[in-house]
Amino acid sequence: MEITTAAKSLLEHKDRQMWTIAPDAKVYDAIHLMDEKNVGALPVMEGTKLVGILSERDYMSKVMLKGKSSKETPVRDIMTRDVVTVSPEQNVSECMQIITEHRIRHLPVVEGGELLGIVSIGDLVKWIIATQRTTIEQLEKYIVGGYPG
Fold first, then answer.
1. Which residues constitute the domain of residue 131?
2. What is the DSSP letter of 74?
3. Count of domains forming the chain
4. Residues forming a β-bridge with 53
5. How far apart (Å, rounded) are the C-alpha atoms in residues 42 and 22?
């Protein structure tokens, strides 16, 4: 089932607040912010430019498992630099395919070099379930003769 809803529509249904971190910040501060805001990743920004993304997975594999100090390690040392992004016009199905292919859970939405927001795997799954639920309800109404169209 192709879901053609654009990524920008998902962003419109989310809390518009977006938390970011600077590359020179310490990993400890980034992890603390992620915990406080209940998010699994932070865009790493130099001014208005997206230069990386820091995820819980980055922390586990590049700090915790290597015995580094999160209070001494800067975000730039462990962030993912090659950030996979999408445009606001890319649809839910395309986003899901990208997330699956790249084995990531957070997908920054970028337009003209500006970070508009992040779509997570959770956002995509919720949208897909809601779309399927609506389709099922419409089909049930059609079957019992109550479909308005």
1. 7-143
2. B
3. 1
4. 43, 80
5. 10
